[in-house]
């Protein structure tokens, strides 16, 4: 048994009712395992070793080994342990609130605790017994609350006993009892997180709201002490009409302290106070302001709700009461929620475990979850090719592969009538059966796209969404690019809706949404010339002025098509060109002519249609050492004030590309990384060129030392930024869009020093320079770079003055 790993004895490992496994006894409360982590742990529990698990779960070797090593690092798996765990799915009790006392030294307007407290509260021995019960049940987190919990005469004895039993704690407090000594003691007894109530952005508002003069300043003085002792802090703001206008002030104050998160929630009135009190009323306007606040400040919002959100959407329980949490008040009553004090589940003498498993109230409450009815179904391009990821990592129940309209209807029918129409008969889906993934037969693709119903736009509120609507008028693409997933998704067949059907949907949606703007998201909308001409003819017959954009290939567009599209309102065309190298284009199966691409895009630009050029230089150009051909091609259209987009191809496309071009994943990542370094180097060098000019304007003497310092300073800034991008390159195969801010620099240089270096015809050159605000684009680019350089110069001067 020397090298055999088993589970650590001190840990509580349980399987929740949603089949996710929870581990308690680690640092910071409960750890919820992902789907694949849960599967690996169950296999270890079943007696299999690592090699056996790798054999029964092929294709996941890297992630399984990483999970295995993580289990050992966290102390979940230890040597020479033969421990086995009961992993039958249960309603697990993971968190318990201890209301240590109802006594409090403040008199807050919104408090639900009665002012008169007559009943004797629980003593020390009773709380010790409750802690023992919690440990036996595998509770991972105890939340200490009140009243003011720290006023309990045996507070320190209780928290020491909880810590001794290896259960994590979070303290809820009004902050009045916190000082350097108590904070140090809290750290010693194992409390690593504290939630403090701060109900205003100013001293006057908070202290008035809580009837506590001086409390606001005391909390702000205490925060640095908590941070010094590395105790995580959550500042809690209870929102009413009285203090809602100070939310932003509160957030601004919180952001001044590291390691501080916030939680903001509306006051909930359960008739403990009367409506009409200005301190506790909550209007619809206040709720809307709260929503807006959340959207704008997610980065500082507390992540304590992550545990709640870890439950699949089949289970209710935002706060967790009755689902994974209980509340024990200071008299020993076990209740569903402190705000619903009249719903008592029992008392501690009935036994916590007995109540959790057998309470009729809890059984009824849980029966109203959608645990047996809610199903998560995903579909679309990414899930169609990554069904294992969808089922393992995000907990989807079903993945619809390929076209989903009819498959989804069949799936609904099977779920509703499982006996008459079993799930095994549904084609085009993937789902899990225990540890295996079942993939059904492929679906037959929809031949008549006109048979599909129009979008059910009536079920959404158009006021909440953009008025521009989208259409998809075909499936697949007539092209055969090796990196694209479109043909695989559509069954390698290009199918179209009729022009009449498209016009019908445009008219229907424009009337429903009162909008005349739309986007056609086909890969190649102009592929069929007869349909395109008829579409333009029908659209021109309406007395409405439409504005829309399309996507297409340069070899599927003629000058007459541009003219027809312009007449009916086309404002933007996205062209997929992918590379400035004809050799690369041939290898990737694009089969377009770059000369024609330049010609047709220049023509579209001349007709005042905005052109967006889609390129993938980091994949193709670097590989064949032809980066500058793509850059030169791009700068042609930058100079014409047209758009450009660089994108990365689909995962399965890259795998196909590796079979055509001699490149490994490491070389692929390295090539793209080198590309960003080149762009950064150009930006820094350009700054050095402009630097002497800026120094001259500022009245400084230009020296080589200053220029060299600017160069080194720029390299340092860019290197820091670039290094932080590297993990994203390797993990996601993507590049931050801001990297390409340097492309316009090359465009400006080419405009400045001679566009003849770009392979354009004379007419194309004339159009590039003089039409469509090309010069203005160059001037704006120069201005942006100038501001960037000036900021560097000024920062150098500041550092020099401060002798940094």
Automatic annotation (TrEMBL):
Residues 90-303, 463-683 form the Radical SAM core domain. Its cofactor is [4Fe-4S] cluster. The chain crosses the membrane at residues 627-646, 673-698, 704-724, 736-755, 775-799. Gene3D superfamilies: Aldolase class I, tm_1862 like domain. Keywords: Iron, Iron-sulfur, Membrane, Metal-binding, S-adenosyl-L-methionine, Transmembrane, Transmembrane helix. Coiled coil: none annotated. It holds the Pfam family Radical_SAM. SMART domains: Elp3 (SM00729). It comes from Blautia massiliensis. It comes from the Bacteria. This is Radical SAM protein.
């Amino acid at each position: 048994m020397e090298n055999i790993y088993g589970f650590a004895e001190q840990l509580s490992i349980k399987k929740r009712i949603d089949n996710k496994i929870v581990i308690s006894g680690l640092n910071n409360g409960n750890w919820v395992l992902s789907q694949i982590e849960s599967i690996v742990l169950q296999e270890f529990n079943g007696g299999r070793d690592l090699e056996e698990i790798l054999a029964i779960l092929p294709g996941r070797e890297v992630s399984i080994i990483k999970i295995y090593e993580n289990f050992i690092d966290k102390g979940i798996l230890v040597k020479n342990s033969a421990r086995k765990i009961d992993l039958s799915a249960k309603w697990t009790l993971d968190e318990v609130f201890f209301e240590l006392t109802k006594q409090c030294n403040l008199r807050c307007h919104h408090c639900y605790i009665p002012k008169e407290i007559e009943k004797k509260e629980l003593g020390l021995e009773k709380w010790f017994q409750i802690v023992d019960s919690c440990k036996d049940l595998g509770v991972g987190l105890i939340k200490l609350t009140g009243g003011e919990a720290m006023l309990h005469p045996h507070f320190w004895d209780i928290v020491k006993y909880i810590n001794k039993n290896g259960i994590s704690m979070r303290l809820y407090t009004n902050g009045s009892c916190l000082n350097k000594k108590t904070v140090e003691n809290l750290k010693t007894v194992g409390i690593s997180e504290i939630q403090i109530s701060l109900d205003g952005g100013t001293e006057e508002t908070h202290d008035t709201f809580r009837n506590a003069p001086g409390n606001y300043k005391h909390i702000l003085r205490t925060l640095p002490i908590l941070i010094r002792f590395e105790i995580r802090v959550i500042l809690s703001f209870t929102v009413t009409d009285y203090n809602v206008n100070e939310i932003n002030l509160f957030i601004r104050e919180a952001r001044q302290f590291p390691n501080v998160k916030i939680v903001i929630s509306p006051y909930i009135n359960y008739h403990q106070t009367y409506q009409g009190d200005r301190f506790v009323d909550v209007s619809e306007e206040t709720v809307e302001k709260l929503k807006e606040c959340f959207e704008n400040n997610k980065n500082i919002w507390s992540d304590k709700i992550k545990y709640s959100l870890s439950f699949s959407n089949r289970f209710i329980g935002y706060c967790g009461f009755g689902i994974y949490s209980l509340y024990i008040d200071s008299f020993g009553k076990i209740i569903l929620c402190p705000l619903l004090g009249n719903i008592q589940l029992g008392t501690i003498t009935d036994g916590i475990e007995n109540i959790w498993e057998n309470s009729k109230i809890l059984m009824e409450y849980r029966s109203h979850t959608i645990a047996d009815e809610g199903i998560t179904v995903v579909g679309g391009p990414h899930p169609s090719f990554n069904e294992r990821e969808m089922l393992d990592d995000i907990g989807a129940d079903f993945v619809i592969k390929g076209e989903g309209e009819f498959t989804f209807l069949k799936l609904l029918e099977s779920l509703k009538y499982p006996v008459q129409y079993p799930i095994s008969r549904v084609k085009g889906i993937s789902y899990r059966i225990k540890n295996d993934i079942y993939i059904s037969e492929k679906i037959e693709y929809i031949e008549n796209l006109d048979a599909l119903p129009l979008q059910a736009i009536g079920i959404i509120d158009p006021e909440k969404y953009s008025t521009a609507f989208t259409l998809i008028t075909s499936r697949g693409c007539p092209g055969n690019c090796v990196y694209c997933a479109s043909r695989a998704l559509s069954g390698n067949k290009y199918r179209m809706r009729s022009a009449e059907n498209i016009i019908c949907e445009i008219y229907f949606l424009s009337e429903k949404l009162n909008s005349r703007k739309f986007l056609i998201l086909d890969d190649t909308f102009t592929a069929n010339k007869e349909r395109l001409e008829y579409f333009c003819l029908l659209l021109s017959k309406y007395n409405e002025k439409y504005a829309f954009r399309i996507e297409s290939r340069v070899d599927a567009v003629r000058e007459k098509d541009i003219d027809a599209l312009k007449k009916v309102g086309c404002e933007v065309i996205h062209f997929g060109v992918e590379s400035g190298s004809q050799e690369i284009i041939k290898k990737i199966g694009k089969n377009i002519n770059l000369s024609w691409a330049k010609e047709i895009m220049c023509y579209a630009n001349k007709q005042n249609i905005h052109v967006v050029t889609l390129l993938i230089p980091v994949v193709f150009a670097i590989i064949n050492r032809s980066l500058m051909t793509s850059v030169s091609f791009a700068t042609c259209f930058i100079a014409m004030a047209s758009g450009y987009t660089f994108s990365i191809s689909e995962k399965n496309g890259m795998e196909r590309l590796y079979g055509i071009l001699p490149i490994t994943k490491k070389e692929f990542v390295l090539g793209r990384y080198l590309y960003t370094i080149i762009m950064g180097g150009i930006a820094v060098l350009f700054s050095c060129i402009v630097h002497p000019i800026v120094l001259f304007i500022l009245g400084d003497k230009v020296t080589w030392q200053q220029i060299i310092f600017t160069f080194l300073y720029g390299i340092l800034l860019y290197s820091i930024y670039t290094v932080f991008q590297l993990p994203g390159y390797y993990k996601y195969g993507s590049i931050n869009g801001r990297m390409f801010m340097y492309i316009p620099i090359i465009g400006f240089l080419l405009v400045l020093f001679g566009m003849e270096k770009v392979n354009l015809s004379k007419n194309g050159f004339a159009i590039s320079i003089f039409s469509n605000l090309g010069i203005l684009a160059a001037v704006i680019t120069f201005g942006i770079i100038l501001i960037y350089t000036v900021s560097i110069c000024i920062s150098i001067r500041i550092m020099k003055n401060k002798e940094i």
